[in-house]
Amino acid sequence: MFRDIKEFRNVLWLIKLRWLAILCLLLLFFITYILDVKIHTRATQNIIIILFAENVFLIFLLEYVARKKQAVINFFSECLINFQIALDFIILTFLLHYNGGVENPFIIYYIFHMVLSSIILPTRNSYILTAFALVLIGLMAFLEFAGIVPHYKLEGFVEPVLYNNLNYLLGTGSIFITTSFLVVFFTSSLAKNLKTQKQEYQDANMLLNKKDKVKNEYVLRLTFKIKETLASIQANLAVITENAKAEAVENQETYLSNAFNKTTQLSYLTNSLLTLTRLKMNDSLQPVTIQVHILIFEIIESLKFEAGKKSVSVHSVIDPSVKTVHADKDALKELLLILLSNAIRYSMPKGEILVKAGDSSEGTLFSVSDTGIGIPVSEKNRIFDEFYRAPNAIAFFNNGVGLGLAIASQILSNNHWSIDVESKENNGACFTFTVPKMKVNEAV
């Protein structure tokens, strides 16, 4: 039904106002009779009929257009608004002409229509319709003043001496013209600001809803992760506790190992969440001068045991020109630890990992590359999402929680560092980020 189409809302609003205008004109007959004011009855009745016919025509037209495509509906809705206001100006001009002309106080209703056009139409259309209305008023005043068309007196209300008073027509006309354009200017500006604010509020509301949805999904994933881990721990311990009185529980070592691994995973999950939350809540930095070769050596040494278990070799290549960087040491160390840990975790046995530090025009370039399982091209945009793990990563290493790269992403964001990822599935991965050079004002 056309009344449910939002594009027709303003068209229907004007139709409702026209029904109100018809009611007011019918009421006008009664008021003028009581006050003994003479109006042009036949002309006024004809105008009421025209207004009624216009509304009926528009309703049938809307019913017809509502069945068309959306592009047609959009086009017709704006055209119908322009058409209605222009036609109302013409009808109002004839109503005034037959009932006192410029002496009729209803002339103020031109301003009312100008305000309406300024609210619901683009600024350009509003000025065009205002100019059109002023031309109609000026033409009516001129034709009556020149005697080209007869002047119909509004007897019993005002003496018919204004329509042929040139000074009155010029003075009042000038004021009316300037007032009309000022009204359109201020109304259009106000309407534009209100529309902008409305759009901003809608965008803000959409963003809040989106963030709320992300938060709910975050809580859901976190709850599921913890529940899954706890269930696994309980299942493994249940087998042992239920058979505690027996001399030995078959595969007891396996159950205890599984419970221990799940407990370790839960502990890692908790620590990762605390780290991520801390980074989100506190983005303050403490930049210091860091010896690059010492930092990389310490990180590789700390992961030597983990790499040794898989016979993965880790090498470093540091450009001789790179001596120090100016950055938050904890942030840089945590970022390199995450990238290097992931490289080890997702490398095949006897794989190779290379940590590099080089100089660039923008700053110090760090990279961690491996010969591991790689990242599918379709998954690259999601690897920094919280709790997300690529399908091949889950298949290769089932105990991950999907927070390592999320923490890395938050570190990058806090420090305003950028990162580039090059990878293909089964062809390894290379993560490269830049620590900008120290600015002059930071060095002072």
Quaternary state, please? single chain
Largest sheet: 5 strands, mixed
What's the total helix number? 13
Element order: H for helix, E for strand? HHHHHHHEHHEEHEEHHEEH
Cα separation of the termini? 71 Å
Number of domains: 2
Question: Beta fraction of the residues?
Answer: 5-15%
Global Rg: 39 Å
Q: What share of residues is helical? A: 55-70%
Low-confidence stretches: none
Shape from CA axes? elongated
Instruction: Count the beta strands.
Output: 7
Structural class: alpha+beta
Strand order of the largest sheet: 2-4-5-7-6
Overall residue-averaged pLDDT value = 83
In short:
By secondary structure, the protein is an alpha+beta fold.
What does this structure look like?
The chain folds into 2 domains: 163 residues, no CATH class; 160 residues, Histidine kinase-like ATPase, C-terminal domain (Heat Shock Protein 90, 2-Layer Sandwich). A hairpin with a 3-residue loop joins strand 4 and strand 5. With 444 residues, the chain is an alpha+beta fold. The protein has a 5-stranded mixed beta sheet. It has a two-stranded antiparallel sheet with strand order 1-3. The protein is built from 13 helices and 7 strands.
